[in-house]
Automatic annotation (TrEMBL):
<keyword id="KW-0963">Cytoplasm</keyword>
<protein>
    <submittedName>
        <fullName>Nucleoid-associated protein</fullName>
    </submittedName>
</protein>
<dbReference type="InterPro" id="IPR007358">
    <property type="entry name" value="Nucleoid_associated_NdpA"/>
</dbReference>
<comment type="similarity">
    <text>Belongs to the YejK family.</text>
</comment>
<dbReference type="Pfam" id="PF04245">
    <property type="entry name" value="NA37"/>
</dbReference>
Length: 339
């Protein structure tokens, strides 16, 4: 990881009705291996977790001053330490109406990456644990819960400063006390939640329509490459850009011109956003259909539907042909043993 700066501050309230208090660190952490491991673990867990919304900073700077302070820091009118101190004071103010108790650490982690600089903010709490010391005596300790945090934000700084994106801010708030989560959202100045499921569904319908203009082999390759590209972007926390996807398809399918897919999108649905955040679950289900209950689990390639697999919706019956040989052998064996 190319860490530029990392610092943590404490915010806490231990009794109902009392004010939230701050314990602010005066200097950034000196970079070392342990610190990089911590930052990497937080980043990895953020990517894996659900509960994300995608949007941008609010324009109401009077009520949400964080973006103004961040710009001052980015343009070197404010130091990193001063920026994080102001941010923590804003978080403290946002928590005034909260009733929950809290004792947590807010990490500000700045990275310089090839794909663009980012600032990540994580709300991390301590966890209790037991260990055996050198004399095999049981003792307890505290450790940072780098996998259990529920509130975080990621700002793609280059996308923000260029003004070319409306989804440069990612907010994660899952399974948290609502009043704490609301205060964190206000502190981050997040707005414009994106309906990524709907946007992904519209995009996949276009891919489906486009595939129908191709021969069967090319259509299959196209759908697979679309899914691979979208999942790679999702894993990296980056949006899918239609123009970049079109170029990517042209590299994989030599009969394509680089602009073929992007032209199709512009002609068939000109109001589609040129970039969007993909919904990973819908992308995966585009090439695979799966489901399970207490006694049955099933997954198959979506292209099998209507060929090897037929579904009678009226009678709720699924018919499967050309069973995998290993499954067929186990079924025959089971039938013989049960008679």
């Amino acid at each position: 990881m190319a860490l530029t700066s990392i610092i943590a501050h404490r915010i806490y309230r231990h009794s109902p009705g009392s004010a939230f208090e701050l314990q602010l660190r005066d200097e950034a952490f000196a970079s070392d291996g342990k610190l990089e491991e911590l930052a990497y673990e937080l980043k990895t867990q953020f990517i894996r977790k659900g509960g994300k919304s995608y949007g941008r900073f609010s324009d109401e700077l009077g009520e949400f001053p964080l973006p103004a302070w961040l710009r001052d820091y980015h343009e070197e009118r404010l130091s990193f330490i001063s920026f994080t101190h102001k941010a923590m004071q804003q978080f403290q103010q946002a928590l005034e109406k909260a009733e929950s108790l809290l004792d947590a650490y807010v990490f500000f982690v700045e990275e310089k990456l090839e794909i663009g600089d980012t600032l990540n903010v994580y709300l991390v709490e301590h966890q209790n644990g037991l260990y055996l010391d050198g004399e095999l005596t049981m003792d307890d300790s505290l450790f940072l819960d780098t996998s259990g945090f529920n509130l975080a934000a990621k700002i793609q700084l280059n996308d923000w400063t260029s003004g070319d994106s409306n989804t440069y801010l990612t907010l994660m708030r899952s399974r948290s006390d609502k009043d704490i989560a609301d205060a964190f959202t206000q502190f981050i100045a997040f707005t414009d939640k994106q309906d990524i499921k709907q946007e992904t569904a519209e995009f996949l319908q276009i891919v489906d329509n486009f595939s129908q203009t191709l021969d069967e082999t090319t259509a299959k390759i196209t759908r697979t490459k679309v899914v691979d590209y979208c999942l790679e972007q999702n894993k990296a926390g980056k949006p899918v850009t239609i123009a970049a996807l079109s170029s990517n398809l042209a590299e994989e399918v030599k009969s394509y011109e680089p602009e073929r897919f992007v032209r199709y999108v512009e002609n068939s649905k000109p109001d589609l956003k040129p970039e969007f955040i993909p919904h990973a679950g819908q992308i995966r289900s585009y090439v695979r259909i799966s489901g399970r209950n207490d006694s049955l689990s099933m997954s198959f390639a979506s292209e099998c539907l209507g060929r090897e697999i037929e579904y009678d919706a009226a009678n709720d019956v699924l018919t499967i042909k050309n069973l995998p040989s290993s499954l067929k052998a186990r079924l025959i064996k089971h039938l013989k043993e049960s008679h």
